[in-house]
Amino acid sequence: MTMRQLLTRFGQRSARATVRPIGADFAGSRLNLLQAEVRAGRWHLRAAASVKYPMPRADLLAAPKELARFVNAALASAPFQGRRVIAALAPADVRILPLTVHLQPGQPEAKAVAKAAAEQLGDSAADHVLDYYQVRGADSEGAERQVLVAAAPKPRVLAYLAALEAARLEPLALDIGPAAISRLLATLHGSDVGQSVALLNFGSGKSYLTVIWGRRLMLDREIDFGEQRLARRLATALDLPADTATHLLREHGIGGRPGGAAVETHSELGRAIREILHADCQALADELAHTQVYVASRTRGSSIARVYLNGSLARYPDIQTRIGELIDVPVHLLNPLDAFDHTLPAERSAALATPIALAAGLALRGGLDA
């Protein structure tokens, strides 16, 4: 069963509306919402909010009355209009399968992808909801297709849709993180259609590297690099509690360039952190180098033009400098609100930058003509 079929069965409303839907990201600890409008061919921010849950996410989604009250308050915190949403499935509920599909003469692409996904999933294929996203390559018009298949267990998808409707939201579509993030990056670089752009999204346990070429998704890869791993490494080396190690990382970063401002202030500690985390940073450097080679192979020699940073480590001191040492391309902190015309104060924009990226990509679904 495809995602579109399931949404139709679940009561998706097909009538067009002048008000665009809200991008809704029920993240690990916060509900992130963003709604945009199109004026004169440009994206304008209508409303954005990031609100902390009053209880663990799973408990909240399983408590309809509390969920409805929480969502109502979140929508009332900014000038949102309507309750139609495009939501993202939780990463733990989605299995992303990178597949190479060979089309037979006259064979529809969707059927070929479904067959390849069924072979990969085996006997459990019938119990999953499937969708797929074509990955761009220089030879994407030939008989071979590179695709990312999103496979989610049907009971979890149904439970999530039921929770959204219990909150009196109207789910128009369910999306996945890589597709939404690629849409955001493409909007940020709408005029640079020939370039590859990457986002390194740091999570607590894992990080994710997304690459687009022009306006199409090229790569989405999980990387074994995250705050918890770095904190454990530091805690073990310095014989510290994990919480103390995390605090040190957030205060001093992962070891900027020798002679940098942060290291000068705490030179001994900065050098120690840099040395302790060297192996992890080198492993990340290797991943980035392999990605550069892959991008060049798929684009006949093109390279990544810019790397954006987002997530937990993006708030670390000197993080741009340290990542810039690992990959020889310009490195920038991501502010998703740069994709929209808006009048938010700089302080508010900066506070929303880290949590709102996925919601922004969801809100952009359908493009300027939707």
TrEMBL record:
InterPro entries: ATPase_NBD, FtsA/MreB, PilM
Pfam families attached to this UniProt entry: PilM_2
Top-level lineage group: Bacteria
Name this polypeptide is given: Tfp pilus assembly PilM family ATPase
Organism: Pseudoduganella lurida
Species lineage: Bacteria, Pseudomonadati, Pseudomonadota, Betaproteobacteria, Burkholderiales
